[in-house]
Description:
By secondary structure, the protein is of the alpha+beta class. The chain has helices spanning about 1-15, 20-55, 60-85, 105-110, 115-150, 150-155, 155-160, 180-220, 220-275, 280-305, 310-315, 315-325, 345-365, 415-425, and strands spanning about 165-170, 175-180, 330-335, 370-375, 380-385, 430-435, 440-450.
Amino acid sequence: xxxxxxxxxxxxxxxxxxxxxxxxxxxxxxxxxxxxxxxxxxxxxxxxxxxxxxxxxxxxxxxxxxxxxxxxxxxxxxxxxxxxxxxxxxxxxxxxxxxxxxxxxxxxxxxxxxxxxxxxxxxxxxxxxxxxxxxxxxxxxxxxxxxxxxxxxxxxxxxxxxxxxxxxxxxxxxxxxxxxxxxxxxxxxxxxxxxxxxxxxxxxxxxxxxxxxxxxxxxxxxxxxxxxxxxxxxxxxxxxxxxxxxxxxxxxxxxxxxxxxxxxxxxxxxxxxxxxxxxxxxxxxxxxxxxxxxxxxxxxxxxxxxxxxxxxxxxxxxxxxxxxxxxxxxxxxxxxxxxxxxxxxxxxxxxxxxxxxxxxxxxxxxxxxxxxxxxxxxxxxxxxxxxxxxxxxxxxxxxxxxxxxxxxxxxxxxxxxxxxxxxxxxxxxxxxxxxxxxxxxxxxxxxxxxxxx
Length: 453
């Protein structure tokens, strides 16, 4: 039943394609492409030739700069055309940023811009492709509809000419073949139907090439994309660092600072009572001693949360074993690394495992958990698994099967895992969560390997 429904759906799409707005927009795109490409090619080849010829004088520089600026204008038109007719949004390339103000600096920036030269290249190479695409699309479209509708207009020949129908060929004065018999008319109509049904897909294939050309030559380069990605990652890191500072300030204010303030008040009262009631003063000093121990423990926990000493001194194996010992369920830890990674990567790996094991303790309802850390190629791989209830709900932006339901390692909610994924992404890392219902949850984190200096 499923295959028959799929077949019916595919047949319906083929039949509807010639009448859909998308097919006509794509056909219009190709028809409009030829006159525009002719204009782009003519102006670009003329400008480049003139500028190159004038390079023996200073006049060649502003001419070439003007051609580059003009071709960037062509690129804006083409991106708008692709966006409006093909529904494909192409990002703007990086703007030209001259090092200094003034016309000379702007011309130098244009001449050094790889994006501007790609626009010139597009203006030159798109012309022959536009000619080919225009001819193919127009031929398929006109012949297909003309042959499909031939039964409606073949009467023109006997009515207004001395021919019984459309003449296909003539062999001198001895033999001529006309499309005038019922069989020939039906065959012509059937051929036209086949061409008409095939035309939208031929046109779509042609416009796919245009999408590739516009994306590759008129959009941002890989370097531009990488710069934008790094700027975004830098923003994530800044926000993360600010959030960590606020957390530390809150923990100090609400924890150790408040406890030490109360301790100072208690010691002041004990000092006042020392002469009048030594026993009460001794009791208060004893309570203050207990408060000091608690404050010291809170400060140790806070310091461990910032950067544990065991991680610096003994590496990931010992640090993760220490985290596992504080988990609410038994945790097996296996670390197989040829050497210690860079401190930044080591710290991210430690806090990733620490946060995931906290989720196990709070939400997993698991009997056991496991932590595996190993190196594969130039990547550091971390896998944390529990045998809890699983069934986490998929969430956007955190890999495959990111969870948010209760009862699994992913049960801390999408916000926690999304934040963890953003931290990993800021260093070109990846977070993937697999949480089938009733099958536990497995989180795999991947970080770039950088050797400690």
